[in-house]
Amino acid sequence: MTNKDLHDPRFYRAKQEADFAKQLETSTPQTEDPAYTLAFQDTEFLLREELRPVRFQLELLKTEMLMEEANIGSTLVMYGSARIPEPSKADALIEAADGEKALKTAQRLKEKAKYYDQARELARLASDCGLESEGKRDFVVCSGGGPSIMEAANRGAADVGKESIGLNIVLPHEQAPNEYVTPSLSFQFHYFALRKMHFLLRARAVAVFPGGFGTFDEFFELLTLIQTGKMEPLPILLFGTDFWNRVIDFEALAEEGTISHKDLDLFQFVETADQAWNIIQRFYDLDCG
After folding, report:
1. Among 167-181, 197-211, 226-240, the least confident range
2. Angle at which helices 213-227 and 192-201 pack, to 10 degrees?
């Protein structure tokens, strides 16, 4: 008896069985009915309400397994608006504005267009460093995979020929992944909860750019996880001091006693990619020049 005989599986694998089922030539009312379809190939069955726990597991496992196979050890996560324009496209927003309120909004978005460039540069710095440990790649750029700040993040990695991750989400309106996400690392989610989990499972630093409800949700969940001891502290870098202090009165939260004053040390304000990358390097005692 050979080693091959000892280690070969005694049962056919699911892929083989699926191929056998596909080759079945008999067509009868029994074989044509959906009940006869293999459970793991029956999409309608998998979409049943009772199968939600299975869908949760699949959405967790697919991304986890593919990330592991891609040798991704850690990530630099970049959160931010889907509306802030690339600087070269900011004037078009102003020209398209209809009415005084729309014009004022377009002007404010143009003011924040500089953060597109900063997000792109931070992604470039982290990706160009090419850090690895224990055979895994470190600080791989990870964004929500959409437009604006997310696009800038993936674009910065692409600028230096490095892979980056996009964690996209199915929305009622179209949300296609941006063209700079590495295709084999472009994931799509149904569940926000699983998507947010994957953002942080490998995160070793998080850059938060000006954004809306989605950015706030991701940012505050991260703060909560660290504040409550569910997650180890890591560099959290808020780009745009004026923006964040205008939209959130962090000091007032501490003064009201709803958070501790020491909770204000969980994050740092920065304005440039160089500032942010230097903080990350100091935190982990790195030297990438």
Report:
1. 167-181
2. 60
What residue has token string 């991260």? 222
**pLDDT for 267-281, tens place per residue?**
999 999 999 999 999
Beta-strand ranges (E) seen in the chain are 75-79, 132-133, 136-137, 140-143, 165-169, 186-189, 203-208, 236-239, 268-270
- How many other CB atoms sit within 10 Å of the CB of residue 234? 18
Give, in order, the Cα–Cα distances in Å from 100 to each of 67, 105, 111, 247: 47, 9, 17, 21
Distance, CA of 237 to chain centre: 16
How many CB atoms neighbour CB 270 within 10 A? 22
For residue 72, what is the DSSP state?
B
Distance CA 144, CA 198 (A): 11
Burial 29-61 (b: 16+ CB within 10 A, else e): eeeeeeeeeeeeeeeebeeeeeeeeeeeeebbe
This prediction has a pTM of 0.91
Kindly list the strands in the beta sheet with 186-189, ordered across the sheet, starting from the edge strand earlier in the chain.
186-189, 165-169, 140-143, 75-79, 203-208, 236-239, 268-270
Sign of the CA dihedral running 128, 129, 135, 136: negative
* Eight-class DSSP state of 289: -
- Say how far apart CA 148 and CA 70 lie, in whole Å: 26
Would you say residue 1 has pLDDT above 60? no
Alpha carbon distance 164, 155 (integer Å): 9
Which tens digits make up the pLDDT trace of 12-55? 788 888 887 777 767 889 788 889 888 888 999 999 999 999 99
How many angstroms separate the Cα of 201 from the Cα of each of 33, 74, 194? 42, 8, 10
Q: How many residues does the chain have?
A: 289
